[in-house]
Design a protein that fits this description.
50 residues; mainly alpha; globular
Length: 50
């Protein structure tokens, strides 16, 4: 497995990070129909957490 911790989410509330695991990289992709506000909210959350 290349990425066993893959998560498919619809909002930032769906994110589930185990704080006990070491996270080295986070990749984010979004569909063309994903509202920009949701993408920005997820980006902000990830930047603040890591």
């Amino acid at each position: 497995e290349q990425c066993p911790n893959t998560q498919l989410i619809q909002t930032v509330k769906d994110l589930d990070f185990n704080k006990d695991e070491a996270v080295q990289n986070v990749g984010i992709t979004a569909g063309a129909s994903t509202p920009k506000e949701i993408i920005e909210e997820v980006l902000t959350y990830v930047r603040n957490e890591f």
